[in-house]
Amino acid sequence: MPTGRGTALLDIGDARWREVAERCMALRDAYAGRLEITTHLAQQILVDPCVAGLPGFVGCQAARGQGAVTATGDVLPCVLLPVPMGNIRQRPFAEIWRDSPVAARLRDRASLSGACGSCALRERCGGCRAVAYARTGDYLAPDPRCWLPDHETHG
Asked: Where is the 4Fe4S-binding SPASM domain (predicted)?
């Protein structure tokens, strides 16, 4: 995903992301027991029945199961989502992680807007918040990379 200094670089395109997810799933099955292949696509749940059945799978992990700390101490909800939740030079990491309003909004999928906010899969997918932010400037906006037609799960 183009982000940071790579923002101006070409992405593989929205349609190709589904192909990537399906290919990763096929390779995972082909090499089962010999090689572990995983992805970090929030939308993996849409093509992978194994992921859909995993307890605790919540799609986008921003401010849930992953985060990042920059060299300047900013705590980010995801390495690809440059929205500071706080700074460890001013507050302890645990406090930032627990109390950040940014984290609270990311963890509350009801705060998502548009198609992601009304999608039947919002709690299990949530779309990629970093992609939404990179494309729209709003990390709660719909994930423009989602390949589901509106009539399937949205609304």
From this structure: 60-119
